[in-house]
Design brief:
Length: 249
């Protein structure tokens, strides 16, 4: 009973610290609370645990995409290009992240699970309508060791959130009409084609507003599960990035 109480106290302390410091996992107080909770990890082999599988998680630490701007509200702003390899136009479009979710679902192939990262955003660029959309970075994962999963990203999709004006969405995000790609973007696209078999967006589905790309040779990475229980998950990526997620379902 003492261990459970200590673990619950540590989780509450971590949540409070994340709220106080806007999700900054590098803040010394937050970092300390993360380390304290990880020492109480109740799962011996979290990469194979059923608590990880068939669940939906929500990021409660700050987003870790590159070159974000922290706003006075505590939210984080990015360009659309920074959220998806500069593959969706207009890449310079300024958005704020509303939420980052990760549904994990068991796949038909043995020991394979979905590893999608769903980023919900709102356009805040004054030159564009205030539309709401989401970027789905699609992937699969499988246990590599007791506490590590191997992740493969297979593609992505840009789509409107429910109840958006589809005509406005088409005007803003229609890839065929956009000619803003600069030399740097074209080089990035060419590099991705060579390295990962990138099939870039071919246009918009006019009925749904969806725009998709595919990677036939998936970029791979590993993610270590530092902590896992029924409520909280803490992961550390290849580059040392730590994220804290809370279970929704």
């Amino acid at each position: 009973m003492t261990v459970i109480t200590t673990r619950d106290t540590a989780k509450t302390a971590l949540r409070d610290a994340l709220k106080r410091y806007d999700g900054d996992v590098k803040h010394p107080t937050v970092e300390g609370k993360i380390n304290q909770l990880c020492q109480l990890n109740p799962i011996v082999a979290p990469a194979s645990s059923d608590r990880l599988q068939s669940a939906e998680w929500k990021l409660i630490s700050a987003p870790s995409f590159p070159q974000g701007e922290k706003l006075p509200s505590g939210q984080y702003a990015y360009t659309l290009g920074r959220l998806a390899f500069n593959l969706f136009q207009p890449t310079h479009l300024k958005v704020i992240i509303d939420s980052v979710k990760q549904p994990i679902v068991k796949l038909e192939e043995e020991n394979k699970f979905s590893h999608d990262i769903i980023v919900e955003f709102t356009v805040i660029d004054p030159d564009f309508p205030r539309l709401k959309g989401k970027i789905s970075n699609l992937g699969v994962c499988s246990p590599a060791t007791d506490d590590t999963v191997q992740v493969e990203f297979t593609g992505g999709k840009l789509s409107p959130q429910p109840e958006q004006d589809l005509k406005l969405w088409q005007q803003v995000f229609n890839q065929e009409k956009s000619d803003e790609k600069g030399l740097k973007d074209r080089f990035t696209s060419f590099f991705l084609k060579i390295m990962f078999g990138l099939v870039p967006p071919q246009g918009m589905n006019e009925e749904t507003g969806d725009i998709s790309f595919e990677m036939k040779r998936s970029p791979k990475g590993k993610s270590t599960i530092l902590y896992l229980d029924d409520e909280i998950r803490i992961n550390k990526g290849d580059k040392g990035t730590v994220v804290v997620l809370q279970r929704l379902i």
